[in-house]
Amino acid sequence: MELKTPLYDAHLAAGGKIVPFGGYLLPVQYGAGVIAEHMAVRTKAGLFDVSHMGELMLKGKDAFRNLQHLLTNDFTTMAAGDCRYSPMCYPTGGVVDDLLVYKYADDDFLLVVNASNRHKDAEWIRSHLLGEVDFKDISDQTAQLALQGPLAHEILAPLVSGGALPEKYYSFAPYLEIAGIRCLVSRTGYTGEDGYELYCSPEDVTDLWNQLLEAGEPLGLIPCGLGARDTLRLEAAMPLYGHEMDENITPLETGLGFFVKMDKEDFIGKAAMAAQGKPSRKRVGLKLKDRGIARDACSVYASAEAAEAVGRTTSGTHCPYLGYAVAMALVPVDLAAPGTALWIDVRGRRLQAEVVRLPFYKR
Amino acid sequence: MEFPKDVLYMKSHEWVKFLDDKTALVGISDHAQSELGDLVFVNLPLPEDTVTAGEPFADVESVKAVSDVYCPVTGMVAEINEALLDKPELLNQDPYGAWMIKVTQVTDHADLLSAEEYEKLIAEEA
């Protein structure tokens, strides 16, 4: 049975086309359509309901120690008010989830996780806690909106009181008032544009949604759904759990080595990844050369006639801003150099593609 | 939502316009393009391909998904609408003007609905 975020009625009122996603009923698009919503975020601003995401708290004397143990990134140099991205691995090196860590204080952290993994993550973390620490799943008490696009700051700034908006990318302000509503505001996002993520109580989020849309309307702000969320993140080559990484793909294979600190003292998955050494396959970007659109789970071949696939696509779409089709794929490292020609099987046809540098789009 | 009376419809949301007994234009309905969303790619058959009533003859792709398009008639593809190859969005903008294929040597057709019957079907499906 699917759950509704507090904004369900607001989505219907705004013409949202509702679909099931991660256990929730959410709009895949509104009346404007996926392309217009995507372009709004790239050229003006878009507003997303991301209340389905999970929020978990780690507090106490050993909170930091648990973070270091559970996650692959190193949080030693993290300051209060910083956000840091990290994969969370199984002992095999495969990925449990990827998430953002928000540091309130040395003994107080917020973890923001994928909606579809929230219960899995909570269970995993609970069963691996060390020492003196309190763990709490506060997802049901937390709603979240994402305001993304070059005009996001211009829209938000006049509504702020009680402090300053976060300036630095990947930083946050824990207690601000936005249009009189108490929010945590971070300078983060999943679109490849400048923008903010706003966390507030479920009781306040409808009011916040309406106020932001009203304030942003003269500047071209429109509500945006899951369809645009996916094309935006794909165009910016941001990985998505369940596609570019999962329990059978290590973060090193996904190209997230920067967030896997192998010289940190032990963390879950470190031994397995050390033993595996340099990955034999890696994530690449592909630009379609033949007419067609590759999606996820398409076989990839080293030649037009090869009988055996060498890899598979993990995501793919037509990019509304760039105007061409791209895919991300997991291929052997010796076929990963930019310029390499590869062939993708799309519903029985082999389409030629070329390996290109990631990201496809950069703001 | 538009339901022009000069074409006939399939339950699967395609339309057919008979230019004469043996020649027809085929496209997708306004309801179809609305359900599909922004179309970004169209895969058409080639001229001289045969098409069969009730069978898929093309597919259209929105940002999120691919959908088969079914042929209302049996015959031979005389012409394809090449404008759709570069501008698939024409199907969204003008679903009854942007025909997909022109079929000649028409020998058979699938179950076809009048505009009233099709409009009723849509209302019932909702």
The fourth-level CATH homologous superfamily of chain B is RNA polymerase II/Efflux pump adaptor protein, barrel-sandwich hybrid domain
Alpha-carbon Rg of chain B, integer: 13 Å
- Write the CATH fold name of the largest domain in chain A: Gyrase A, domain 2
Helix fraction of chain B, binned, reads 10-25%
SSE order of chain A, one letter for each helix or strand:
EHEEHEEHEEEHEEHEEEEHEHHEEEEEE
Which percent band covers the strand fraction of chain A?
A: 25-35%
Q: How many helices of chain A?
A: 8
CA distance, first residue to last residue of chain A: 39 Å
- Top CATH class of chain B: Mainly Beta
CATH class of the largest domain in chain A: Alpha Beta
* Head-to-tail CA distance between termini of chain B: 13 Å
Q: The CATH topology of chain B is what?
A: OB fold (Dihydrolipoamide Acetyltransferase, E2P)
Radius of gyration of chain A: 21 Å
For the report, how would you describe the main beta sheet of chain A? 7 strands, mixed
